[in-house]
Write the structure tokens for this entry.
Amino acid sequence: MNEFELLKTFCAAADARNFREAAVRLGVSPQVVTRGVKQLEERLGETLFHRSTRQVQLTAFGEELAQQGRGILSTIHDVMRPAARRGRDEIEGTVRLAAPSALGRLLVLRALADTLASHPRLTLDLRLSEAVANAVGERIDVGVRIGALSDTRFVARRVANLSFHVVASPALLARTGVPASVQQLQAQPHIALINSNSGRPWPWEFRHSQAFSVQPSFLSDEPEAELQAALFGLGFAQLPNYLVGRHLRAGTLIEVLASEAPAVWPISVYRSSVSPVPPRVKVVFDALVATLGHADELRV
């Protein structure tokens, strides 16, 4: 017997009235129990049972070992229990989640609030960045991605569309007038976002014309700073729906050239395609898929 089998046999004998009853519980012969106990005694150099013709009784050393052994076996049982048999309240551990910074702050935490409250032993490790995460290298369990995701190592679910809108503050439009074309827009001050993957400003995309590179009057690597600059009237900005929707409805930003808006981009939730999927990962993935698409900020 290996060490685990010896400990299991000994604990069964310690909890039974005799070796015969222990053998019945284990589904083996009494001789197997006897040999297992003797082998463990020889390995430890200690007597575990006082034996007589009528009964066996634990020694003091045996009592201490039995107490420790029960705890060890209980822990192994819990660890090895199939995930499908674990109760809802037993979901625990850390899920590392990657998301774009502004989208993560505005929507991801709200989408997961109820799930985290329902599973107090679940820990969310949220990594926010505009750079595309190296999901394997950074040990990402679940991610939210803007744009196409074709990597076959991941299971992805498209949950919403990202639309872009060229906007300006009322004060800026009062100074510059409303541009009637993309060419007129190019002559105006611009606010640009740095592409964290390339270090250069993102180009602006339009439906009926080529993208153009922006010569910015304000530049940032943070989308929410880009939004604030637009609200202060520092220039025209091309911003996503989840940042500008409420400002368009409130009139603090005005959309221009709406007919030139580019095609929408997908927003997807992804996880590794490796099976089985740990319950902690599945519950976070499912919650994001179920709730992100219903966020008001993703509609204008």
